[in-house]
Amino acid sequence: MNFDRLWLLIKKFRYEIIAVFFTAYGMYLRFMRLAPRGFWEDELSSLGKLQGSFIPFWQRFNYTDFTYFPGEYIINWPFVFIFKTNKWGIAIPHILFTLLGFYLLYLICRRYFHSIFAWIATFALLAGHRDLIYHQLELRPYGVLATLGLAAFYFTEEIISKRYCLSLSRKILIGFSFIFIIIFQVYGAIVLFFTFIYFLLRESGERTFGDIFKHSYRFILVIIIIGLPMYLWYSVGSTQVYKDSGYFAYTFQYIPNPIVDFFGFIKSIFCNLIQINGLIGLKD
């Protein structure tokens, strides 16, 4: 065996090796967590709404959780129809979206990172995050939101930054991605909105807002013209959305209020961001 050549290959593809290793490890942890579990109360509720004849997504309906947004329903209904109550078959859409999340993280790391330690730390965080291990493959929309957040981050920079000259097909792909994020779940539009704000503020350090909007206003207007009516359609008039939006008022139910307990707040945020218990094995 030519070890010099092997070393050169490892060195050349070191980032891809890190991505593949942690993706495989992260998926292993998620499969191991799913294996002994049955459907719990919220999943059984979602399963009940996914069974039966397909409900057209343009109708307002209580799609799988407290929102009326159909994205989670659209991706899961065919698999519930085929696999009935088989948890592994039903988990296929979330397995695919989890893999997509790892791939998007690879693209983002390739865009920003040039240090092998940054790659390892970032992929270790996603692969071993306790909450993602537990929730990403369950029959609820929240695990998919992590992937949609990565998609919003990756694509929004291409729309806002002047460094990218996008083809029409690329803009159409990004547009469909953004519309899906908006109609996936009520939090999708929030994720997309704040991602746009972040990149607008970041780009404003190098260009004027006028130059930024001149570069991207057509795309943004199209998304607003298409996405805003859809968002309003699924939310306005939905008493359930308004009722449960009260949860926003309980932001500090599980983490300390920074005005009352600043250090407790920082500790909660910091610990939630760096939970990598999965790296040393699953815990009950």
Task: Give descriptors for this structure.
mainly alpha, 69% helix, 284 residues
Number of helices: 14
> Helices and strands: which structural class?
mainly alpha
- Roughly what percent helix? 55-70%
Number of strands: 0
The secondary-structure element order is HHHHHHHHHHHHHH
User: Over all CA atoms, what is the radius of gyration?
Assistant: 21 Å
CA(first)-CA(last) distance: 44 Å
Q: Give the rounded overall mean pLDDT.
A: 85
- Tell me the overall shape: globular
Q: What fraction of the residues are assigned to beta strands by DSSP?
A: under 5%
Oligomer: single chain
Major beta sheet, specifics?
none
Q: Segments where pLDDT lies below 50 for 5+ residues?
A: 245-249, 274-284
Total domain count? 1
Describe the structure.
- This protein is an all-alpha fold.
- The chain has one domain (18-280).
- It is 69% helix and 0% strand.
- It is built from 14 helices and no strands.
- α9 packs parallel to α11.
- The longest helix has 27 residues, at 209-235.
- It is globular.
- The termini are far apart.
- The model is unreliable at 245-249 and 274-284 (pLDDT under 50).
